[in-house]
Design a protein that fits this description.
Length: about 240
């Protein structure tokens, strides 16, 4: 973690002022020209979006049960599902992931089973799929009747260079778009949507600051006009 220079000053500034202003005061500019991290703050501590994702999954942990599918790894399945999970599957789009039990395509449905899963966990996945409408329809088909999809999608965010250089990074969504997207794929179903974020949280996230570098109060304040993360709980009707 940087010890000197503009990032130390920014972190100190945030700590001193974040509880006294609803927005950054006039005179804060000029801002640093470059982010503290281009790795979403993984190299500095806990990324802000990961903190929010985990809070969402913890709140809905009882949904994570039975046969559960997670993308890329099973960390959240194990952490929040525990002994409620009877079978844990890991989906990856291409061969080579040693944790993957299924290699399949969310757009075409290749390699996937229908009416098979009690819970799907898809965190920060749909924005790197160009045909996002087809992917959400596939999610619906994969769930058993009564099954639940727990999904997170970035709102305000930098480009994920890792994904962009491999398969693409295509979308940043608004709550209206996500509500309509899932409403079309889950007709008449129970869809719960929540957003997390505020202007200070978004600024800290874009500059690559970690959770440990900002006051806790920033993480609890919500402003629907600055959605850093959009979370969806979608139930397939029985």
């Amino acid at each position: 973690m940087a010890k000197n220079g503009p990032w130390r000053s920014l972190s100190q500034f945030l700590r001193r002022t974040v509880n006294r202003w609803s927005v950054f005061p006039a005179g804060f500019l000029p801002l640093p020209a470059h982010p503290a991290s281009r790795q979403f703050a993984f190299d500095r501590g806990t990324p802000i979006d990961r903190f929010l994702i985990e809070r969402f999954l913890e709140a809905h942990s009882t949904d994570i049960q039975g046969r559960v599918l997670e993308v890329a790894e099973r960390g959240y399945t194990s952490r929040y599902g525990g002994n409620r999970v009877t079978r844990s599957d890991v989906l990856h789009a291409v061969a080579g992931n040693p944790e993957a039990t299924i290699v399949g395509d969310l757009v075409t449905g290749r390699g996937l089973a229908w009416d098979a899963f009690d819970c799907l966990i898809l965190t920060q996945t749909l924005h790197v799929i160009y045909d996002i409408h087809a992917a959400v329809k596939t999610i619906y088909r994969m769930l058993k009747p009564g099954g639940i999809a727990l999904v997170t999608i970035p709102g305000i965010s930098q480009i994920s260079r890792y994904d962009a250089d491999r398969w693409g990074d295509f979308w940043r969504m608004t709550p209206d778009a996500v509500r309509r997207l899932f409403g079309e794929a889950f007709p008449g179903e129970g869809i719960e949507l929540e957003t997390h974020g505020n202007v200070r949280m978004a600024a800290a996230y874009l500059y690559g600051l970690a959770v440990e570098e900002i006051p806790p109060s920033v993480l609890t304040e919500q402003d629907r006009d600055y959605p850093l993360l959009i979370c969806i709980r979608a139930v397939k009707q029985k």
